[in-house]
Amino acid sequence: MLQLERRPEASTTLRWLSPLLALALTVATGFLLFLGMGKDPIQALTFFFITPISDLTGLAELGLKTAPLLLCAAGLTVCFRARIWNIGAEGHFLIGAVAASAVAVSVGEAGGFLVLPAVLLAGIAGGMAWAAIAAFLKTHLNCNEILTTIMLNYIALNLLLYAVHGPLKDPYGFGFPQSVMFADAALLPALINGTRLHIGLAFGLLAAVAVWVLFARSFIGYQLNVVGEDHRAAAFAGFSARRLTWFALLVGGATAGLAGAAEVTGPIGQLVPQVSPGYGYTAIIVVFLGRMHALGIIAASALLALTFIGGEMLQIAMNMPKAVTAMFQGMLLFYLLTCDAFIHYRIRFRRPLPAGLSQPAAPAGQEL
Amino acid sequence: MDLLTNILAATVVAGTPLLLVALGELICERSGVLNLGQEGMMLMGAVAGFIATLSTGSLAAGIVTAMLTGLAMSMLFAVMAVTLSANQYAAGLALTIFGTGLSAFVGAGFVGQSIEGFEKIAIPLLSDLPVLGRALFTQDLLVYFSWLVFAGVALFLRFSRGGLVLRAVGESPGAANANGLRVLTVRYLAVAFGGAMAGLAGAYLSLAYTPMWTENMTSGRGWIALALVVFASWRPGRLLLGAYLFGAASILHLVLQGLGWRSPTELLAMLPYVVTILMLILLSFDPVRTRLNTPLSLGQPYRPGH
Amino acid sequence: MAVSAQRLKLQGIVKDYPGCRANDGVDLTVGAGEIHALLGENGAGKSTLMKIIYGVVQPDAGRIVWNGHPVTVENPARARQLGIGMVFQHFSLFETLTVAENIALGLPADEVRDRGALEQRIREVSEHYGMALDPRRFVSTLSMGERQRVEIVRCLVQESTLLILDEPTSVLTPQEVATLFKTLRKLARDGCSILFISHKLEEVRSLCDQATVLRQGRVSGHCQPKDLSASDIARLMVGDDTPIATQVSAAQPGDTLLQVQELSWQTDDPFGTSLKNIGFSLRAGEIVGIAGVAGNGQEELLKVLSGEITLKGEAIRFTGEAIDRLPPGARRARGLAVVPEERLGRGAVPVMSLADNALLTAAGQGLVRRGVIRRQRVREFARDVISCFGVRCSGEQSSASSLSGGNLQKYILGREACQSPRLLVASHPTWGVDVGSAVAIHQALVKLRDEGAAILLISEDLDELYQLCHRMGAICNGRLSPLAPASELSINQLGQWMAGNFEVEELADAAA
């Protein structure tokens, strides 16, 4: 009889091994899947995981897609550590992009070194404002943040669509739903010349460092941890769940808003309806995969960024649906959670005792 | 008069998928399991049902396939959340993300194809009633079926021993186990029912509502259904009401446009989501009732013998 | 081979949990119609043994013989089928269901088709044994004593022939205990065997025919409790080298530190208790006790005093200052410390280290500067607590959940005591704690008192209250009785107060 048994202490090794295990299982499943579809699995996996990062341009593209994921994930880490299930990074991101675009469009061709900071700050403020709605609904009206943030994501998407069809639409854009191209003063400088990689990646890395400092050294980080692990102990200690909820959600809104602003002022240079391929949702996977730890989310952001590029690669090279990206991401999270179960549990094989019969008191079972 | 009938009829149609998926989730939550994967299971049901009908030509095959697909998806969730005691929030989210991706992947080749969807069937006599007759009793089979499921769920919870067991497990799995009830079996069955209903709700979208497949065609209905269950305080009667209310909200923009209201479609399309948030806010004014009715073990994993 | 007089026989029962052996070759025999006590201090393996008998957990080795036949009890359903009924300490009832529905859930489906017949049976059985019950009431509206009746009646309706009761008196007033014992004796006369699990020796001596004593997972003795003195049995329970009780010197009360007047608070929790017009005072250098059956407002009172619940008025005065509106941190800064009842999950975060758990309440002791944690100081503080209070652990980095109940409780109490509080509110500090730790905790409380701190002790353990307290009263349904000097308060009077009859004897708050 197979039995699931709680480990006396959670396994630290498995905690860090689990993401790698999940990745291996995902790759293996992908292999079988491609095989089943009649495609060459080795070739497909190579296109997906290897080809995109085999030259400098590819690496730059990877950094480009890592940046928004890392920024969103850094904010979500703060929320998830406190078990505030903010699913709204996508919405914060979109509103950040819209707000930044609004400023960039209204400044027009006016130059000056203040334009870019103003645009980015608008993005941050937009994301924070959007997150503040969820924070208010949670702290004052006791609304479940999962549902409100999801709904706010849909509302944000519609606001974005409204913006590109209405107020921010380029009047000379041949009817395309998009804004004008931003002026140079509103664009992020490149990080490596000759590539599209911009300093958004630096923002992301800074955010990860900030998350590290927050949880390793600061008392507020400690309080967030306590609220997440044990809200009754937090109440006993007198840590204000309300204040911490606001803090976490505002940080989440700020980083995702900045990510949105960096996306429109970086690689795109204008506001378009497809400004996000789902960065905000993917960032959730990043946080889980990265173990809610600064170093972990940096690595996980890069990996998930790769799935975006790999999906595009497969679409171009092997004529596969682009949705392969989303499927790989979902699979990864699924396997991760399954592997995570074995951090706290182990499987033991145990023979049931026959009625009334005694068995020597030796350890009754083998560990798996 | 005609306009009113049309609006009512459209409301029922728009509310039906919500009713189906929310009834499933209601049973699931009553056992203490919160499955946030509704959206993913619906999408999988929608795409699987569509493909099955397209390839066999049979709507029945589509429905069965969709329900089985939803059920299979829910079992993935159950293994993680019930057997392995994983965090239910995370496992449900994973299911939604996975289902969204997989359905898009599987359905990529079927976008733009079309099938013959469910036809409206007028029930003799009843459909001749003024106003309500055509709104309620000239609908497709699945609408009538949703009422059957509703009645079944309501009677089950109220009168059957199974309903009593379900409520007991949802309130206190530890006590249920001590009473000799099989907690994990009950939870598996509840999750399975939720999965099948989500699959069916998805199929309603791709086989009846708009007989075709598009990526993300549920557009948040699975999430709205989750809010709906809370709004209904886990009671089927209020759930029925709520589902049609949401149905009305989601066709409101069509009505307004029909009336010549000139307002950007994008803003009107937000309405169902705004209404959802408003409903959640409304609930906050009556926290005692929500707490009295919330299944006490909701979201908590259970392992017997620990 | 069947010996009909032996209803239950356990032989060589072994159960291992990761990191400890809870039962180590336990033998136990219960005869028909016998009231058998299973004695042992907390952690001796009583709960594990009874879970094995009831099929909640499976033994790793050993055999169970039921009415002469070897059996395997795979799960509680099987136990019930055999005729083994169990009354849990924390009841296994469903609050949102009625009494009849609760009982129906434990019976086979075909026996409960007819609700009317079931209700009739419940009435008959409960009245026959002097435990009147209304089958249509919702469990959430019942008192603890009534809930216990539901559990017992449920077993009787199932025609159990062995009734296991786990610490059944801990939720009863002294008067209710007397009624329960009458019922149990009647049951035994009717042939039902009773396994009575307890650590209260006087109760066992007055009720039980036979006793089996467990210590550290092994049987340390069998006896007939009526023939032995309580201290003899206690020695069997704890061994020779553990002190059994603290010697408590008389208190020297000083100035009034805490003054509570007309404190009322309305709960919004449908299952909670509202506080009604509570008033008492507490002086430096004294321990005041509040007795009461669980769920009568103790938790709410603790939260109102700690600041987890803040109030609007001026009902609570601490050193003259109204602190009703202050949050926990501000109250702590003024010298008000709290030890909550739940150790894991309120007093300490289970997954965090002892050092991290120090920060929970002691951040104000210079452990945090400008929002930055001073790790070195945190470790030093935790190490001080560990050494001063003899906490057995592998260091300040061990997780709270890895400690035994007694050691964790010593750490939590030590964490508060090391901050030199002026007032300590402790709720049931020795609940589920081994005797050695309990004595250490009592000593620590008395030492704090002698250093001039005021202590409010909320407890369900009357022995503990009588032993430590200078004055005491009882809380019932959110109302507090008058306080009386412990030396003048009869157990009978206290029992009346615990049941909510405050006006029987006129005892003013004499010492105030």
Automatic annotation (TrEMBL), chain A:
Q: Indicate how the chain sits in the lipid bilayer.
A: Multi-pass membrane protein
Transmembrane spans: 16-35, 66-84, 91-108, 114-137, 146-165, 199-224, 244-266, 278-311, 323-343
Q: Where in the cell is it found?
A: Cell inner membrane
Pfam families, per database record: BPD_transp_2 (PF02653)
Any single GO molecular-function term of the entry would be: transmembrane transporter activity
- One GO CC annotation, please? plasma membrane
Q: Which UniProt keywords apply?
A: Cell membrane, Membrane, Transmembrane, Transmembrane helix
Major place of localization?
membrane
Q: Using the record, list the residue span of the signal peptide; answer none if the entry has no such feature.
A: none
List the protein's name.
Answer: Ribose ABC transport system, permease protein RbsC
